Amino acid sequence: MPPSGFPLSGDGRGTTLAWSDDPLLAAKFTVPAAPRHHVSRPRLLGRVGAGTHGPVTLVTGPAGAGKTALAAAWTRDGEPPGPVAWLTLDPHDAAPGIFWSYVVEALGRALPRSPGGISMPARPGSVGTSLLTRLAAATEHFPGPVVLVLDGFEKVAGRRVPAGLEFLLDHCGPLLRLVVTSRADPLLPLHRYRAEDRLTEIRGADLAFTSHEASALLHGHGLKPGDDVARALTRRTGGWAAGLRLCALAVQRTGDPDGFTRSFTGTEQAVSDYLVAEVLDTRPAATGELLLRASILDRLHPDLVNALTGRKDAEAVLAGLTRENAFVDPVPGTPWCRVHPLFADVLRAQLRIRHPALVPRLHARAARWLAGEGRVTEALEHAAEAGDWQYAASEAVRHLLAVAMFTAPDGERIERAFSRMPASVPGAGPALLAAACRLARHDRAGCRERLTEAGRHLRRSGKEPTPEAGLTHALLCLLCEPRADRQTDGRADGPGPDRQADGPGPPGPAEEAARAVADLMRRMPPELIRAHPEIEALRLYGLARSFLGRGRLAEGRRLCAEAAGACTTQASLPVQHLSLGLLAVAEAAAGALTAAEDHALRSLAVADQCGAAPDRRSGAACLALAAVACERDDQEAAHRRLGQALACRDVHEDPLLAAEAAVLRSRLELALGRWETALAALPLPGAGDAPWPAQRLALTRSAAALARGDHEAAAVAVHGTRADGPAPLLALARAHFAAGRTDRSLRLLARAGNSPDLSLPDRVGVQLLRARAALQAGDRAAAQHLLGRALEAARPERLRRPFGDAGPWLRHLLDGTGGTGPAPAPGSWLTARGGADLPDPVQPLSGRERDVLLCVQRMMSADEIADDLSLSVNTVKTHLRSVYRKLGVSRRREAVERGRELRIL
Asked: Which residue intervals make up region (Disordered) (predicted)?
């Protein structure tokens, strides 16, 4: 028979409060049942279990964070060190007599035997020291560890109960283990418990669901969302347990996890109702009003909240909300706080309902305060929300943020703020910001239109524009280049015969704008220029773009390199990314393949270094790598890199890059023998096209026409470009050679070969066409000599495309067919390809069969092949049947594809 002492038998039957005979509520001692869709969380169960080996375990978090669920799950499914006494608290337990009556009863229910000498409290309002002393002493005689769980301690108001609990913890034996769950820290000396290593803490951040746990919760509700849905909901809810459960129920109703996730906010009715009832309405009215007015902010600073509310105690109120886990969290190391995003949604919705006219005034007030503190981007966003566009634009221009839109980490935020500005807002400042927004979206025509409007406003103002406004206007004008309709240096139609393609010429709009930017920089406060080191880099980059667009490649490449070198700070890294990418594109076009590859890879590395978002990266670097792969005849890599480039917006909308992308697509189609698709990949000429991209497109169109066998169309395509430049001269020479006009072709080659601006691919092309002409004239020695020079020039850069495009005659010259002299040794660099080794055909192709297959790749008919190879049509057909048999195919296209797979082509 167990000894008496506790006034309870341990089964709880008939137990009452001593002063009223009211029964104690048995439900308060009942461990909550597991929810129907319970998610096991071993990582947290283990922490609670480890904590109960010490005196105190504290679990705190906001409403619905899963505190009670965790403690109950551990009680049911964990491995407690001994019996667990569970007590669910409510506001009545703030009376010490009631609280300690329930504690004594809970321990009595948990213990198999109760130590003697303890009586129930006699009054609700107080307990004597004797009871606490006797209870502390009784813990020394527990048969083993006993865990007391106090669930919902935030409901126990006042200091009297915490003081008694502190006394018990300071004087009890080591067998009593306390677990407290609460929305706020209890009024216990937690700092001392930490220092004494007597405290285990599980906070709101620990309670937050991981995406894996969120996925398990959704699956428990019979849903089968993808990992992206679970991650998105976890991110949006901050891992808040109640929010995720409410989301799961809502998704059950809609049956569309993806659609719900895209549209989910804190204004979802179930979530809103919960947060209003459990968080907002439980605060004092004045605190609730403070939260509503501060809800326009993403982050809360006490002084800013005071400015919005007219109060002076925001710091104390915010500190209290943080302590109470009221969905307000401190930003470590700063005076700022952050409101949980779902609660912020609810507060903003409530503000619009209760005080709709107040919203724009609050945003305007926040804009002024933030601007005064130097937080200009945030100020602009609030001014935009207030509809105060004049103030927003003037601040943006004054701080050069129209320029920073292209480079700053928060440039996208600036663009997003001003993209909502109505077109009707008057003034130079709004027009400049509208122009910058359009340029950020690569809408150069729209940018120029708004710049024209801004220029009119600046001239009409009656006073000299501020240096900031003038610089913004000039730099945006520069970055809008190149375009052909305003060139003043006479280069749209090319230089005259007596002027080199890269001669300086008179200054154009780009040079004038660049000079204006440099002059205005000298007039501005030095500290402002130091704050924007990207301006000089942008000036050089804009000038480089203009020069490249006009075909002044040497100057353009030099300026790209200077722009990249001028980027010496983190803020200017986005310009370095752009400059290196554009430099790589220009180098690839010039045949400097090694340098192009190096600069392209550096551009990609810089983009990673500065954390550029995927949708704000330039595709120039990938475009350059695709061009390098194409020139080296690595078609697989070229297709892959071109696909990566085309995923970037600027490759479609920047005229320089769009032209290069079209050139590459066409060349890759030509390599597959699809000349019709190659032609279709090239846009039709436009009146406003800049000279260099227009010429690149025209020359590629000429090559596609020549592959089709239409030498007249090939020649026509070249007309309208700079016909005396080396590249057009070579294209015309090829067209005339195909037409049988060899003498005229050689004269054009002589002019092209003497040009100092000859690119490496064109230099190799000139030598190869001369070699073919010599071979046709029967001078095999001269042909071999010229081929050797072409190989020698191409070898350092591993330039292969001109040799692949040359045709079957080149193979004859390389293998010595039809001659007695030694053939030039091509070396492994010419025949090597990227990719894994592939099996050989059943039988190797003969040299003549390879020639026929090369002609098939060029979409030549049997008659054309016979004429080109000086064979009869029947012999060609015999070779074709042999090729099909050896390659295991039955059609021309299959033969070409198989030939490429086997590296025959």
From this structure: 486-513
Element (H, E) at 443: none
Query: Which one of 1.10.10.10, 3.40.50.11270, 3.40.50.300, 3.40.140.80 gives the CATH number of domain 847-901?
Result: 1.10.10.10
Entry pTM: 0.70
Complete DSSP assignment for 555-597: HHHHHHHHHHHT--SGGGHHHHHHHHHHHHHHHHHHT-HHHHH
C-alpha to C-alpha distance for 513 and 483, rounded to whole angstroms: 14
Rounded Cα distance between 104 and 549, Å, is 87
Reference 376, options 361, 366, 385, 386; nearest CA is 366
Phi–psi pair at 199, nearest 5 degrees: -125, 130
Residue 20, helix vs strand vs coil: coil
Better-scored residue on pLDDT, 85 or 122: 85
Q: Do 267-356 and 847-901 agree at the fold level?
A: yes
pLDDT(686) > 80: no
Beta-bridged to residue 102, according to DSSP, are none
Instruction: Write phi, then psi, for 87 (nearest 5 degrees).
Output: -140, 115
Residue 135 token pair: 């209870």
Residue 403: what pLDDT?
87
Distance linking the first and last C-alpha atoms of the chain = 99
d(CA 390, CA 396): 10
Phi, psi (rounded to 5 degrees) for 337: -125, 160
DSSP code, position 241? H
pLDDT digits (tens, 9 = 90+) for 807-863: 788 877 876 655 555 556 666 677 655 443 434 445 677 778 888 888 887 778 888
Phi and psi, residue 317, nearest 5°: -65, -45
Using alpha carbons, list the distances in angstroms from residue 85 to 9, 102, 685, 757.
15, 10, 84, 90
Alpha carbons within 13 angstroms on the beta-carbon side of residue 426 total 4
Model pLDDT for residues 220-262, shown as the tens digit of each residue: 877 777 778 888 888 888 888 888 888 877 777 766 666 676 6
Tens of pLDDT, residues 171-219: 998 999 999 999 999 999 999 999 999 999 999 999 999 988 888 888 8
Residues 267-300 have pLDDT tens digits of 567 778 888 888 888 889 999 999 999 999 999 9
Closest by alpha carbon to 50, among 83, 81, 85? 81
The answer to whether 164 and 135 have CB atoms below 8 angstroms apart is no
| 343 token code pair | 């609660």
Question: Using an 8 Å Cβ cutoff, are 655 and 690 in contact?
Answer: yes
The topology under which CATH files domain 678-819 is: 1.25.40
H/E element holding 56?
strand 56-60
Cα–Cα distance, 628 to 631 (Å, whole number): 5
Max CA distance (Å), the chain: 126
Q: What is the DSSP letter of 140?
A: G
- Residue 745 contacts residue 736 (beta carbons within 8 Å): yes
Residue 874 neighbours by CB under 8 Å, 6+ apart: none
Residue with tokens 């086997």, as numbered in its chain: 902
CATH 1.10.10 corresponds to the domain 267-356: yes
Beta-carbon count within 10 A of 676 CB: 12
Task: Give pLDDT tens digits for 102-117.
Answer: 999 999 889 877 656 6
* Cβ pair 569, 533 in contact under 8 A: yes
Angstrom distance (rounded) from CA 752 to CA 499: 14
pLDDT tens per residue across span 360-376: 999 999 999 999 999 99
Question: Phi/psi at 216 (nearest 5 deg)?
Answer: -65, -40
Strand partners, 56: 178, 199
Would you list the domain boundaries of the chain? 26-207, 209-264, 267-356, 678-819, 847-901
d(CA 111, CA 306): 53
Q: Which CATH architecture has domain 26-207?
A: 3-Layer(aba) Sandwich (3.40)
Q: Tokens at residue 15, please? A: 């137990």
